[in-house]
Design goal:
- The protein is an all-beta fold.
- Helices cover 0% and strands 60% of the residues.
- It has no helices and 11 strands.
- The protein has strands at residues 2-4, 13-18, 26-35, 38-47, 51-63, 68-70, 76-93, 107-126, 129-137, 139-141, 165-174.
- Strands 2-3-4-5-7-8-9-11 form an 8-stranded antiparallel β-barrel.
- 24% of the residues are buried.
Length: 175
């Protein structure tokens, strides 16, 4: 079904939209610059769930040499490894957990967090359009978390921007 693709000159710049299916929790976008097999991506995300705030990602991708082409549809895919660093700020709104039956009238001021995430991904492209799926493991830390509000952030590592396992989708245009 797939064959090794003939040499396809890689794009130079791509504009991405992140996780279009998760717009209820977060939305964002970024810009990617690629030179040969190495790409750099800077992106911005706005979280609107119980842990709301902003997140800035800086990602480095190393693409594999081989590209594969679908025999009939002629779309191409290429695998990559990535490493990204993440910084951001988030606050807590307990009323947004009502859908999980955990509604509480507790709030917390914005907290700074930082972390990193290595992983593996695959980029599909056809013409100027692309779709990327990637998965990895994330390590986050909230350096200045007060002991009194520490219990409010117990789900930050599961449902919030600090989730330990990450699964991201991106779509966009490449030039």
């Amino acid at each position: 079904m797939f064959e090794r693709a003939p040499y396809v000159k890689p794009y130079t710049i791509a504009i991405t939209a992140t996780n279009p299916l998760s717009a209820m929790i977060k939305y964002g976008g970024g810009i990617e610059f690629r030179r040969k097999r190495v790409a750099y991506l800077a992106s911005y995300h706005k979280y609107v769930g119980a842990y709301y705030g902003t997140q800035y990602d800086f990602e480095n991708r190393i693409y594999f040499r081989k590209q594969w082409m679908h025999i009939y549809n002629k779309w191409i895919y290429q695998d990559f490894f990535y490493f990204r660093t993440v910084v951001g700020d988030m606050a807590y709104d307990g009323e947004k957990f009502a859908v999980l039956g955990m509604k509480e009238k507790r709030y917390a001021d914005p907290q700074f967090y930082a972390g990193f995430a290595p992983g593996y991904g695959r980029r599909h492209q056809k013409g100027a359009f692309f779709f990327t799926a990637k998965a990895g493991v994330r390590a986050m830390a909230i350096p200045a978390l007060d002991k009194q509000i520490k219990s409010l952030y117990r789900l930050f590592y599961v449902t919030g921007p600090g989730s330990i396992i990450e699964l991201n989708f991106q779509a966009g245009l490449q030039f």
